[in-house]
Amino acid sequence: MKVEGTREFDAPAQLVWDVLNDPSKMAKLLPGVESFEIQDDRHWTAAVKIPLGMGGLKLNFNFEKLEERPIEYAKLSSKGQGVGAIVAMETQFHLTPDGDRTSMRWEADVRVAGPIGSMGQRVFQPIVNQQVTNVLNALEAQVAEAKGGGTGGAEEGIDAGSPEAYSSDPEGPTHSTET
Amino acid sequence: MSDHTIGVSVNGERYEREVEGRKLLVHFLRDDLDLTGTHVGCDTGNCGACTVLLDGRAVKSCMLLAVQADGADLTTVEGLAPDGELNTLQRAFSEHHGLQCGYCTPGMLLSATYLLAQNPKPTEEEIRRGIQGNICRCTGYVNIVRAITAASGQ
Amino acid sequence: MLLSELEYARPESVEDAVKLLSREDARALAGGQSLVNVMKTRVASPELVVDLNRIDGLRGIRAVDGALEIGAMTTYSAIVESAEVAAARPILAEVARTIADVQVRNRGTIGGNVCSNDPTNHFPPLAAALGAELTIAGSDGERTVGAEEFFEGVYLTAVKPGELLTSVRIPAKGGARDGWASVTLGKEGTGIVNVAATVSNGTARIAIGCVAATPVVVTASADETAVADAVRAAELDPPGDVHASAEYRRHLAEVLAARAVGSAT
Amino acid sequence: MSETTIAPTPVELEVGYAGKSIPRKEDGRLVQGQGVFADDVKRHGMGYVHFVRAPYGHARIVSLDVSKAEALEGVYGTLTPDEVAELTDPFFELTTPPGSQIKDYALAVGRVRHIGEPVVAVVAASREVARDAADLVEVEYEPLDVLVDARRAQDEGAPILHDDAGTNVVWSGTFDWGDVDGALKAADRVVKIKELHFDRFSSTPLECSAALVEYDRGTGQFTLHCNHQMPGVAAIWMGPALRVPLDKLRFITQDIGGGFGNKITTHTYLTACCLLARKLRRPIQWTEWRTDQHTANAHGNERWFHDIEVAVQNDGTMLGFKVTALDDCGAFPRYEPLGCIIWAQVTPGLYRWRNIRVDFTQVVTNKSPVAPNRGYSRMQQLWLTERICDIVAHELGLDPVEVRKRNYIRTDEMPYETPNGCVYDSGDYARCLDLALELIDYESARAQQAASNGKLIGIGIGSTLDSGTNNFGQSTLLNPELQFSGNNEVATIKLDIFGEIVLTLGTVPQGQGHETVASQVAADILGVSPDQIHVRPGHDSYWNSHAGFSGTYASQFAVTGLEAVKGATEKLSLEIRRLAGGVLGGADPDDVVLEGGFAKRADNPEAALPFMACGAIVNANNAVLPPELRDITLNCRHVYVPPFTMPDFDRKFGNLTLTYATQIHACVVEIDPETGHVDILDYAAVDDCGIRIHPQIVEGQVHGATAHAIGAALHETFAYDEYGQLLTSNFYDYHVPHALDLPEIKTGHIESPSPFSSLGTKGMGEGGGAAIHAICAAIQDALRRAGKPAIVNDSFNPPERVWRMIQTPEETAALVEVTQQ
Questions:
Q1: I need a labelling partner for D666 at 20 to 30 A (CA). Which of A179, D314, D490, D624 fits?
Q2: CA distance C72 to C54
Q3: Do D183 and D241 reside in the same domain of the chain?
Q4: Minimum-distance CB partner of C242 among D132, D733, D740
C-alpha cells in the first residue's frame, strides 16, 4: 500500500532535515517505542508496540538510511518483525524550503506480510493512516522543540496508552492507493 | 502460565480438570475430555462445527476459553442420544439425508436443538436463520432445512 | 488457533475489573467473539485477560423515560429479545438480529461491539446516528462521552487502559424514525458498507460505517437526493480491500444513506 | 452396533434394494458424534506438530535457526529443510522436461514460493507449546520478485520460480481436431472474444487435513491415520521420496469430512510427519487449521481463455471454435499437469461442433498449489463452452435456449463420439433442459422479466457433463513416458463363520454413502437385507483390497466401485450356491436361489441351507466337504477393469472417460441496479446420471455441487495482492455460502442408463460447476435485457464487478467482436 501527502512546517528546511536525520530524534517519532539503539549513522533498531485496541502489536524494527541529498531528499527503509507480522516500509521525504517555512512531500510504501497481512485491508489502511498521522504530529512537535519553543506535546503522540485520535486530518495522508 | 481448576457438567456428567488459561473450550472438550464429536472447521468463529449448548444457549466453543465455562452446564452432540436411541432430530437428519460427510452435523444438530427449543414451529426462513452460523459444505442446506422442518412436526 | 500464554482473571465487580485493567497489558474480555479470534492469530496477545462475564451489574436493559440504559455486557440476543428495546428503539433489535449468527449473538455484547470498533461492526454507526452516550468507569469514577467522541480510530475508543465501558445510553426516540441499510458479504454477512440513520423534524442524521476509521456522521434534509448530495459532499476517502474498492464504497455510502433514510420507521 | 449379525433371522425379502433411498449406514454414528475423523485419533506420547510458514510470496531463505525453539520446555524436536533435502528425494513430477525438473519437497528447500508454504516443523507436547516454539524459529528471508499474474509468467524478465526448470511453463501443447480454420472461413459469422477468466476458488471441505502418523522401528512401518482421499497416489509419491517400499506406508481413514479433490495432494505434509515420527520416535499429530488450508494446500485451477474465435451460422448453429488457454497451477504442479488434459474429456461441452483447436499452456505462479477440485478442469472447459453459447446467442440476437437446443448433441446420436474420440454414452440434453425450464416456470419468468420496470431480472442456463471413470491413459497425451492407463477398482466380500457378510471397498468415501450404496447392490445379489451386509467403514490399505488408484474422486464410484462390489458379490453368490447345491443333494448352482439368508433349491424350497451353515462349513467344518467343493473360500475379491484402450498420442484422440452424466441447471436472478448485488429468485437442477441406486444420495450430491458452484459464482475467491499475499485466507473473508445465502434448490431427473456399465449407472457428484455457468448466464441476460451490452467475462461476480458492468457495460462489451462473412 502506498500512502503519500504533504505537510507544512513553520521552521526552516535545515532544521526539519536535522530532525529527520537524527536517529535519536527519529526514535521519538515512532509510535509506541519501547527501546531504541543506534548502530551507526545509517543503521538503527527499535522495539515498538503499535497501539491497536485489541492489544499492542510488538515489532522489532531495523532501519536503514538508503539515500540522502541534504537538505532536500532522504529515503529510508525499515523492516519490522514480530509474531504474526512482518512490516516492510520504504519512506521518502522531499523538502522544499519556502523562506522560514518548509514544505515536506512524503511517500511511504508499506508492505505487511504474515497473518496480519491478510487480516483485512479495510482495517489495515486506516491503521496505517492513523500511525502516519501520529508520526507527522510527533515530527511537527519535534521540529517545534528543536526550534526552541519545545513542549512535551509530542509525547502524547508516541504514548502507546493514549494514541492520538485519528481524524481526517487535512495534513495527514492525502492519498492512499490499494496496490 | 496460569492454571485453573474448573468444574463443568457435560451431558450431565461432572468433570473437574486443571486447564491453562489459554485453552479454548473446544480443545478442552476434544483433547481433555475426549469428546471428539465437537469439531473444528475454521479458526475465525465462522463455521459453527464446534457449537455446543452452554447453560442452554448455543455458543461456538472455539470462541470461549475453557476456564470461562467453569461452573457451566454443557451439552455436546454426545449428549443428544445418551442411551444410543436416536432422538427425533437425529432421526430426521438421517431420514431426510441432512448429512453427507457428517463433519458439520454435530454443530448443526446443536444449533437446531437450540432453535427448536426457542421456536418449536419455525418457518423455513427462521430455520435458515437459526443455522446461519453453521457452515455445511456438502448439502447446500436443502435437506438440513427439510430435516429440521420434519423434526418440528411440520 | 492457539493462544499465547495468558493470565486470566474473573472479577465480580466493576471496581475490581478496573483495578485489574490498570495492569500493564491487560485487556477486557466481553463476549470474546472478536478478541478471542484475534488472539488465535496472536496478532494480539494480552498478558492479562479480564473476563467481565461474571459482573452481573454490567448486564441488562432498562427503559428510563423512553431512553434505554443498556449494560455493556448485554448480549445481542438479549437486545433482540428485549421488550424494552422493542418498545423504545426497535432499530437496535432489528440491527442486532443481523449480526453474525445466533451463536455469536448469544455471546457477543454491545459493549464489546463498540469497544472493538472494527469498521465493519454494526453498533458504531448505529450508536453515532442515534446519538448514544457511553459511560466509562475508571479509577477516578465515571464519565460519559457522546458516540462521536467515543470512536477514535480503528480499534481505538475513548476507553483507555484502566478503564471500562459500563453502559450505553440510547436517547428516547420521540418522534424520530430510524433506518438501517447495508451491503454485506452474502446475506447479513460481514459489512462492506453499513449506514444507520435517524430522522427527526425532517432532518436526517446519518452515520456511515466501514468508509473510514470511525463512523462518518452526515446530516441532511431527509429526502433521498439531499441525503445522497450530503454524502457526496462529505468527500469520503474509504479504504479499498478485496471486497470493495474505495470508489465502490463511496458509491454505496450514497446509495445506502438514501435507503437508510428512505426506509426509516 | 447392529452391523455384525450373529445369527441372521430370515427376513421378509423385499426384492430390489437398489433404486431405493434406504437410511444410510453411516448416519447412526455421525449424528451421535461417534464418527472417527483423522483429528480424533490419539496415541500415548504423541507430539503435536506445528509448521512455521512462509510470510512471503517469494523469497530466498537466507538463514534459519531452530535452536531457541528446541530449547523451549516441552519441545520434542524440529524438522528443517536441510534435513528434508538430505533424507528424501523430490516428489516425482508428471510433466515432461523442463517442467519435470521442478523440485518439490515436504518443506521449502532454499526458497519459499507461496505464502504459507511450510518451512520448518516443530513438535511439542501440546498444540500450544508447538505454536509457542514455532514463534521462536528464526528465519531470515530475502524477498524476491513475485509472480501472481499467470499472464506475465512467460514475459521476459518475469521471476522464474524454479531455477531447475528455468521456465515457469509446466506444460504446453496444441490440441487440434476437425478443421477449425476451414470452419471459421466457411461460417456466416465469426464471434471473437478477447479474454475470459475462470477464477481461483476451492470447495474447502469443512474438515481440514489432519493425520496421526506412527513409525514402527522394528518393522520400518509407517501408519498414517489421515484423511487423504486417494491413498494409492499418495503412496506412489511418498514411497520413493521417503525411499521406502509402498507396503511400508499404511493409510487408514474412517470418516472424512468432505474432500472434493482437495485431499489428494496432502502428501507433502504427510511426508514431513513421517520424517518426524521416525526422527523423534513418537507418534506425530498434525492438525491443519483453516488459514493453513486456505494458504497452502489445495486451490482449484485458475484459467484464462484468450483469443477465442467461434464459427457460427446465422441461425445460431455453431461449427467450431479455437482458444488459447492459460492455466495457473500455483507454485508447484503436484497433481498437475493432469488438468491440462482432463478438460478434454468434455472438449465440445454438450454441443455438436466438430472443429476445435485449443492451445493449452500451464504455468506456475507464487500462489497456493492447486489440486483437483470438484468438477476438476472440466468445469473450466464447460464454463468456456457455456459462455461462448450465451455470448453467441446475445450477439446474434437469439434466445440462449434456442441456441442450446439447436446445438445440443441429440439423444438419437448417442453413443456419440466427440471430435477427440471420447464417447458420450447416453443422455437427452434437450429433455433435461425442458425439465429445468419447467421447474423455474420459464414462460412466467420471461413475463416477469418483461414487466420488471427497472429491476434487473435475468434467466440463465448452465449445461454440463459430469464425466466419470477416468482412463488414466489420457496422462500419456501429456507425457508418453508415463506408465498409466485404464482404471480399476476392487472389492472383497466374505461370508464368515456365523453367517456374517463382510464387504470391504477399495474406495475412500468422504460423505458419499458408499457403505450404504454398496450394501444395496450386494444385498440384492445375495437376497438379504442391506442391514445384513457389514461394509467396513473407511479404508485401510492393509486390510482393504485396493488397486493402484483406489480412492474416491472423478465421479466413478457408481461405476468402478459398484462394479467391483457386484463382481465380488456374484462370485460369492456362485460359491454359496455351489456349496449349498452340493450339500443339498447335488443341485446345480443355477438351481439354487438365495433368499432371506438361505440358499434354497429352486425345485424344493424346503431344502434350504442358512448362510450361517454355509459359513460354518467352509470356515470351521470343512472336512465334510467333498473334494470338488474344497476350492470354495466364501471370500471373494473382484477387480473391475473398465474397457479402455490407449489413446492415440499423435492425434490426442481416444476415449478418456467411461460415462457422462448430464446436469442442466436453470435459474432466475435479480440484480440490485444500484449495488450490483445478485439475488437468486429461483433455481432448478436436473440430473441424468443413468440408473440411480440411491436417489436421495444422488439428489444430495446435486444439492452440494450446486452450492459449491453458487459460492464460486458469487461469493468465493482466492484473491492475491501484488506481493502474493492471500487476501481471503479464512472463512471471514472467504465467504462460504451459509443457509441464508442459498435458495431452495429444486431438482428433477431423468434416467438414461449407461450402456457401458452393467448396472446402467454413471458416476456423478461433480456436476461441472453448472451453477457458475447458469449464474453468469443469468447476470448477462439481465444486463442485456436492460439494454446493457456487457458480457460476463469472469466466473466470479461479486457485487462490485456486477455494479461495474451496469455502470460501464462497454468495458466488457469491447471484449467481443462479431464479423460477418
A1: D314
A2: 12
A3: no
A4: D733
Residue C90 C-alpha, separation from nearest chain D C-alpha, in angstroms: 23
| CATH number of the domain encompassing residue D215 | 3.90.1170.50
* Contact with chain D for residue A97, Cβ under 8 A: no
The pLDDT-based confidence of A54 (bands split at 50, 70, 90) is low
- C-alpha A178/C-alpha C242 separation (Å) is 10
Choose the mutation target among C40, C184, C193, C243 for the interface with D, i.e. most D CBs under 10 Å. Answer: C243
Q: Is the model's pLDDT at D552 over the cut of 80?
A: yes
- Counting one residue from chain A and one from chain C, the pairs whose CB atoms sit within 8 A come to 108
CB neighbour burial string for C104-136, b if at least 16 within 10 angstroms, e if fewer: bbbbbbbbbbbbbbbbbbbbbbbbbbbbbbbbb
The nearest CA of chain C is from the CA of D448 a distance in Å of 24
Last residue of a domain, one of B18, B42, B77: B77
Residue B32 shares a structural domain with residue B57 = yes
Q: Which of residues 11-30 of B touch C (CB under 8 A)?
A: 20-22, 24
| Residue D694 sits in the same domain as residue D572 | no
pLDDT tens digits, one per residue of D25-38: 999 999 999 999 99
- CB of C206 within 8 A of CB of C217? yes
Spatial distance between the Cα atoms of D513 and D759, rounded to a whole number of angstroms: 18
Averaged pLDDT, D337-351: 98
Which chain A residue's Cα is nearest to D136? A83
What does the mean pLDDT of chain A come to?
A: 76
CA of C241: which chain D residue's CA is closest?
D727
* Residues of chain C contacting residue B4, judged by C-beta atoms under 8 Å apart: 8
How many Å lie between the alpha carbon of B153 and the closest alpha carbon of chain D? 19
Are C128 and C207 within 8 A, CB to CB?
yes
Closest CA to D505 of D553, D570, D557: D557
Give me the pLDDT at residue D547, please: 87
Which of C3, C41, C211, C216 to substitute to test the interface with A, most A CBs within 10 Å? C41
Q: Is the pLDDT of residue A160 over 80?
A: no
Q: Which grid coordinates are listed for D221?
A: 512401518
Give helix D378-396 / helix D770-785 axis angle, nearest 10°: 20
Please give the residue range of the domain that contains residue D60. 39-144+208-256+264-296
Q: Using CA atoms, how far apart are residues C193 and C122, in angstroms rounded to an integer?
A: 10
Closest CA to C6 of C30, C15, A11, C36: C36
**DSSP one-letter code for C260:** H
**Hey, what amino acid is at D491?**
A
pLDDT of residue A161: 35
Per-residue pLDDT, D15: 59
pTM: 0.94
Secondary structure (DSSP) of D549-606: T-SS-TT-IIIIIHHHHHHHHHHHHHHHHHHHHHHTTS--GGGEEEETTEEEETTEEE
Domains of chain C: 7-51 (3.30.43.10), 61-170 (3.30.465.10), 177-262 (3.30.390.50)
Q: Assess whether B67 and B10 both reside in one domain.
A: yes
The residue among B3, B11, B97, B144 with the most chain D CBs within 10 A of its CB, best to mutate, is B97
- Mark whether D572 and D528 lie in a shared domain: yes
Q: Domain for residue D169, yes or no?
A: no
Q: What is the ipTM of this complex?
A: 0.94
At C193 the pLDDT is 97
Q: Does B83 touch chain D (CB under 8 A)?
A: no
Of chain C, the end-to-end C-alpha distance in Å amounts to: 42
D782 and D713 within one domain:
yes
Say which residues have a Cβ less than 8 Å from residue A9's Cβ, sequence separation at least 6: A16, A101, A102, A103, A104, A140, A143
User: Is residue B83 included in any domain, yes or no?
Assistant: no
Host domain of residue A44: 2-177
Structural domain total, chain B = 2
CB of C146 within 8 Å of any CB in chain A? no
